[in-house]
Amino acid sequence: MKKIKIESPSKPHFCYFGTDLFEKLPKLISASQLPKNILVIVDSNVNKLWGKNIRETFSSLTYNVNYYILEAGEKSKSFTKVQTILKKMVELKFNRDSMIISIGGGVCGDLSGFVASIYNRGIALVHVPTTLLSMIDSSIGGKNGINFANRKNNIGCITQPEFILIDKKFLKTLPKDEFLSGCGELLKYAFLGDTSLFKDISKFAQNGFKENDANLDNLIYKCILVKSSVVKQDEGESDVRKVLNLGHTFAHGIESTSNFKIAHGIAVSAGLLAAIILSYKIGLINEKQLSAFSELPLLMKYPESINKLSVPSAIKYMASDKKSVNASPQFVLINDIGELAMNVEVDSALVNESLTSALNFIKTLNNPTKTTSRKK
Ligand SMILES: NC(=O)c1ccc[n+]([C@@H]2O[C@H](COP(=O)([O-])OP(=O)(O)OC[C@H]3O[C@@H](n4cnc5c(N)ncnc54)[C@H](O)[C@@H]3O)[C@@H](O)[C@H]2O)c1
Prior knowledge:
About 45% of the residues lie in helices and about 15% in strands. It is an alpha/beta fold. The protein folds into two domains: about 1-175, Rossmann fold, CATH 3.40.50; about 190-365, Up-down Bundle (Dehydroquinate synthase-like, alpha domain), CATH 1.20.1090.10. The strands form three sheets. A seven-stranded mixed β-sheet has the order 1-2-9-6-5-3-4. Strands 7-8 form a two-stranded antiparallel sheet. The protein has a two-stranded antiparallel ribbon with strand order 10-11. Strand 10 and strand 11 (about 340-345) form a beta hairpin. The longest helix is centred in the C-terminal third of the chain and has 19 residues, at about 350-365. It is globular. The protein starts with a strand and ends in a 10-residue tail after the last helix. Nicotinamide-adenine-dinucleotide binds near residues 49, 110, 152 and 170. Nicotinamide-adenine-dinucleotide (NAD) binds near residues 46, 141 and 153.
């Protein structure tokens, strides 16, 4: 088991990472002297696959353990679900001496974190992420929230958990497309760390993004370290934490225009490609870097539906991104590995060209026999 200290300024805490670790959760809870009234919020798909194991594990804890099964899917990040869970907690007579344990992916974690942060002005929270994306990203850093009025993650706050327990065994049942979505987010870290992490992530991508890749444990561990170090420097995202949005402005446009049919991490991968091309177009990187950096998102497997996306529609959504200033999207771009440029505003024609170019490359990958130009 690895024990990683997440040095968030507001509340330093630990992330435990390993395989077959979940069984240790009751011991960790009692050792941390956490509240004895518990609501376990479990993603419905995770409940189907792991429900028996989860209940058996908690049976060794002589605490008041209750369950709420959260319908899987992005739609659950809603005020309706927040209200339903809050109501359940009131019925259970939960006071401040209560806690929430989230067992699921980013949807379950974001919603549970938000409920825990507002119930009685904040109760304890433990994250047990079960998707690759939530293991390397969403469970770390304290961001939580829901979607409102057709906008993503626009209601929420930053509240840190008591601890995070990552058991890689949960990945055994994760559908392949969800695993790939996590890999899209993992590709982002290749540009946030050092050249050795870039090389390791490149090898993993060249090897076909395999769940049983011998280096996956190491990659998850390194991504957590990178995210933790960013959160330590800027928990509230007033400055350096913005680097975590690399590729995300384009991704937001891609996800929204696909009506969220393209998974977040896949959109991030395509967004990374567009951000790399844009970095080249405005002279931040040279041709050699363009070619070396583009290789990673070009190794991703994209769904056919991405070929039909409308660039103008994606660009329109990008202007409404919550990170936009006066309807002008703000980009994180690349100077080099580990050297990012933040708050970059770019001429809209270049943004359009970069996204068009990225999507054309992807179209060529998806239809290798067709003669779409691969020239930039
Ligand atoms: N808080 C943050 O910092 C942050 C960062 C990145 C993304 N996010 C949010 O995370 C969400 C995406 O997270 P996600 O990719 O984990 O999606 P998700 O939570 O929707 O999970 C993806 C799918 O996998 C299923 N699933 C989860 N674990 C499983 C398992 N072990 N076996 C089988 N099926 C399993 C779920 O039921 C769901 O159908 C988005 O809402 C995004 O906005 C938050």
